[in-house]
Amino acid sequence: MPPKAKAKKQEPEDPQQKYQMLIGQIKSLEKLTLQRAQDNTQLKETLALLQTSAKTAFINAGKEKEDRLDISADSTRQFKAMQDELLKDIADRERGIETIRAQGAKDRIQLENEIREKEDIIQKRDQEIIDLQHRLDQLNKEFSAVLRQTLASVAEKIEQKGEVEG
């Protein structure tokens, strides 16, 4: 449907009425202009407050960003320092372990050598004991033989004396 045609305002034909009507319209327009000027002033003040608030928020955001970056950099530095310290500690402990292993291997070799030497000494002494045992057995046999000879000789002499006396 097409829009309805507007009804035309009827303007008074009397100039005095026209004048009064125009003065009313002017006052109404002045009030409207004054109201709009006040609204504009209020909007400008609100805009200024919003701009100040936005600027403050932007500055605060920048400071927060700087603080976060500082904290992040400090945390990274501390983490790196701790990591370096731990890596150094690990390296020191690994060197200590290697030193202990090397010393253990050296001690094991020395112990094996000492055991071999002791076993050699024991074997030599065992051999000496066996040799001395054989020597004792031999001396025992020789002593027995000498004793038998002496006994036989004494017995013979006793017999000879007994025969001579008797």
Descriptive overview:
With 166 residues, the protein is mainly α. Helices cover 91% and strands 0% of the residues. The chain has a domain at 14-123.
Defining traits:
about 170 residues; mainly alpha; 1 helix; cytoskeleton; Dynein regulatory complex protein 12
In terms of topology, how is this protein built?
Layout: H1 15-165
Order of helices and strands: H
Pairing-aware structural class of the strands and helices? mainly alpha
Number of separate strands = 0
Helix run count: 1
The rounded distance between the terminal residues' Cα atoms is 192 Å
Instruction: Give the proportion of residues in helices.
Output: over 70%
Radius of gyration: 67 Å
User: For the residues shown, what is the average pLDDT?
Assistant: 90
Organism: Hexamita inflata
Family: Belongs to the DRC12 family.
Subunit structure: Component of the nexin-dynein regulatory complex (N-DRC).
Protein name: Dynein regulatory complex protein 12
In short:
The protein is an all-alpha fold and 166 residues long. It has a domain at 14-123. The chain contains one helix and no strands.
